[in-house]
Every structure is written in structure tokens, then in C-alpha cells.
Description:
The protein is α+β, with helices and mostly antiparallel strands. The protein has three domains: 3-186 and 429-456, BirA Bifunctional Protein, domain 2; 255-384, YbaK protein (Alpha-Beta Complex), CATH 3.90.960; 473-570, 3-Layer(aba) Sandwich (Rossmann fold). Helix content is 27%, strand content 29%. Strands 3, 7, 8, 9, 10, 11, 12, 21 and 24 form a nine-stranded mixed beta sheet that branches. Strand 29 (528-532) and strand 30 form a beta hairpin. Helix 1 packs across helix 12 (447-457), helix 2 (44-63) packs antiparallel against helix 6 and helix 2 (44-63) packs across helix 12.
Amino acid sequence: MRQKNMLIPTLRNVGAEAEMVSHRLMLRAGMIRQLAAGVYTYLPLAYRTLRKVEQIVREEMDRIGAQELLLPAINPAELWQESGRWDDYGPELIHFQDRHERDFLLGPTHEEVITDLVRNEVNSYKKLPMTLYQIQTKYRDERRPRSGLLRGREFLMKDAYSFHVDWESLDKTYRDMYQAYIRIFTRLGLDFRAVEADSGAMGGEENHEFMVLSDSGEDTLALCSSCQYAANVETAKVGRDETKAPDMAEVPKPEKLSTPGASTIDEVIQMLDKQPEQLIKSLLFTVDGDPVLVLVRGDHEVNEIKVKQALGAETCHLADDQTVNRVTGAPTGFAGPLGLKEAVRVVADHAVYEMAEAVTGANEADAHLLHVAPGRDFQVDLYADIRTVQEGDACPHCGEPIRFAKGIEVGHVFKLGTRYSDSMNATFLDQEGKEGRLIMGCYGIGISRLVAATVEQSHDDNGIIWPVGAAPYHVHLIAVNLKDETQSRLADQLYERLRADGVEVLYDNRQDRAGVKFKDSDLLGIPLRITVGKTAAEGKVEYKFRRSGKSGTLTTEELIKKLPDLLNRADQQQ
């Protein structure tokens, strides 16, 4: 494509509202323009990249036998009410009424629609397993859509759904999809990790997130420094030594001390001259409507997701001050496991089991207890891993230290089980003519988000650095001086030759200074730049890798011959 007449409105600066690197660079590179908060127009370069990503995803989905279809973006409220998500999904739902005052929504995801389709069209085990996917625009009313394509209210997504007669079949498709995702992100030249994650509002069983590693990521990842263990910090398991119960034979009886105004861990350790690991933090939660006392060591943080999972609960949140006062007899900040006013279930982290004695709240305003021994002075109903992992903790698989990294979620795979087939009565007839519930899997990739995440991971001070797999064009051909007949003729000939050979080439044929062209080329980030300049009279051109900046000179015939190798090397240049 000749650049002179292309819609590539590059900018030198953008407004302060563009906070993320990908947002700023894609605006500057003339790839996107904002129509409203979280709603963007994709200009030609961005649209080409979007289609590149789509095609890679489509090829890998087809490779594992998934069938492409297209579901309606407009969903009737009845389906979401049937699944229970009309009220549960939250304010991100964009809903409206038609002229007949019937409720609809713009689909943020399509579990309900696909389940309705399959329950009506597939009723025999003979058709199963089946995997269906689509690439479609989704709609979510994000609270703070200020990160460009990373968090928009309208975005492009690949969502796939599989249907099975048993868990063994789901396991196989899950593994196939997991490997397909690895191939997709590898083909796009990304540095990524598959991490264990929480299913959130989607529901379901086992699931993994695929994270592009980037310092600008919103998610914190726990990665093992030795083995391949990786998890979102929200769900990362904490490895521990299998220790015996501590010896409490010489631990004194509990002693009450006055601690006026000391309602936080920091205030208690300063007043009593203790270390955080000598305290037990006691927090009252409301779990499925009932109060539960949760205990962790003072230097640890309670992980609500783990508490919820450990108790097999639907809901879990901190209790309000009124409930705390009723159960403990004290204001918030002075709770402890001894002397509760109401009998409640007590759940403690494994680290609490390993404490010989501790400081706890006294269930009395402005008072704490010393020498409290778990197991002697109070009983725990359940010990479990309920704290948030910390850097340096032992890996649950190999025991080596955990390190933290930032990541951007670009894909998620779920084992939904019967979450939707139960609520929506999606069944099939087995070999014996008996009715069974469909077992489901769900697999998503944020296509437009993936484009932005690529920029977040791959850029420098001069602009974007596209991996070959995602680049809008593979070669950027620049004629330094089009007024020079030799340069102009050689550039035109080379452009036509590259096009004839099927090379994706953007030809900068603008009547601009060389410096402007080179600066724009760096901003656009096309992997390989070919410059026709002073050596044109010798039939030679310069090539330069965008990623490394390494360059060289070749004749045009040598360039044509070596171009496949140069493009292969473009992603490898560091």
C-alpha cells in the first residue's frame, strides 16, 4: 500500500488522559481514535493488526475442531434471568428496552445464548462433544474506561464454548484449548504465562488465565523462580513445611493488657513492642449470611477468595461493625478467638497452627491478650490456606521462592461444569435413553485487548515495535528523496516486486523530509525497514530491524532472496 493516500494521521503529542503506553502510542501512530469514553474507531493500520490476530486465533480454533458461528449481540433479558446473572452480573451490563418495553442487553459474554442454542438443537450424546466459537464485539459498561483498548466499553473478543457428556471429555477439550492458546500467543511473539486463577462471575471449576508480562499490567502474578508454577496472586497457593504442632508446655496462661486506641496491627506492635508475626489477626466475615471468624498471622493478609473456596461458599465479605460488635462484644479492631459472645465457626490459616503463642484481641474495647496458644486456649474448626501469597514464600510445587510480576490478562479458559446447564435445564439423552446435564467449558480471548497488550510489552521511546505475527505490514519501504529519479524508479520497482511476491509492504511515497519519514517509521513499528537512498545508483538498499536497530546493505536481488530469513530474524533481534 502506498502511504501517501492512506489514513495514518500520526501525532507528535496526545492529551494527558491517555495514561497507558499502548493508548498513547496507538493514538500517536494514527491507529485509533476515541469516539466516546471506552469506544474507539480502528483506523486502517489497527484494523489490519486486528484481522491478523483474528486469523491466527481462527486457524488455531479450527485446528482443534471448533466450529465458528455468530451469535446475536442483542440478548433478551429472559435468558439472563433464567441463568441468574441478570441481577448478579452487576452494573457493567448495558441494558435497554425496545419499543414494546421488553428488556434486552448488549452481550458482554454469551454463555446464556449458546446454552439456549445447544439445548434446543442438540439432544443426543451422538453429537457430543461439540465446540462452538465466535469472534464478535462485546459490550460492558466499565466504571473507568481510561486505558485505551485495554479496558473499553466495546471490544472484540473470541469466545468459545464446549459441550460434553462427561468430565473426561471436557478435560480433553480443555487441554486441547489450553495448547491452542499457547500456540496463539507464541505465534504472536509474546512473552506470556498461563496462571491459575479465580473464575469470578463466570462460575465453574478449574480455570487458567493467560497473561502477557508487562510492568503496566493490572494483575499481580506469583511465579516460581525455579519450576513452571504460576498463578494470579489472588489465588496463588502458599507452600508450607509439614511441621508438627508447636510445644506449648511452657507457654504462660493468657494475660490481658490495656491497649487504648490500638485497633490496628501497627498500633498494637508499637504499643506492646512486638513483631507482626507474633500477632494473630482476627477478622469477622459474613459467609453465606453467617458470621465466621477468620484468623491469619499478623504479617499476613486474609484472602477472601480463598476463604470462600475453603468453605465452599457463594458469598463472602467482611462483616459490618454492628455484626462485629454483636458477635465479639467489642468494636472493630479488638476481635479475638477467646471469649466470643456468640458461637461461630473459626477458620485459620496454616501459619496460625504453627504458632506456639500469640497476641490477639481480647473481644473488649482497648484490650489485647498475651500468651494465647492456638489449640490450647481456643479451637479451630478448619485450617486452610486462606492468606495472600507474599514474595519469597515457598512455591507449593517445588518449595523454591515465589517472585512477583505484573501481567495483562488476554485469555481465560474455564471448566464451567453444569453451572449453566443446571440453571437453564440444558440436557441430552445418553446411550440408554436417560437424560443427563450437559457439561460445559468456556474459553475467551480479548482480541482488541491483545493488540494493546502487545504494544505494552513491545515498544521503546520512539514508538511501537510490532512482532511479525501482529504487524499491520511486514516491510516499510522508504524512498529518501523521490525527486531523485534513480531513487524513485528503484523504490517503485522494488515496491511492485515485493507486492508481486506477496510481501505485505507499506511504501512511504510521501514528499516529506527523510527525518520525518524515519521518525514516523519508528513510531509505526513495522518489523523491517528498507530504505532506498544514496546507494540506489548501485542497485543497493539498506535494511534495518525495528526491534534491534541492526542494519545492513544488500542489492535488491539479494534482498528479495533473503527477505524470508530477514523477517524470521526480525522477532529474534534483541
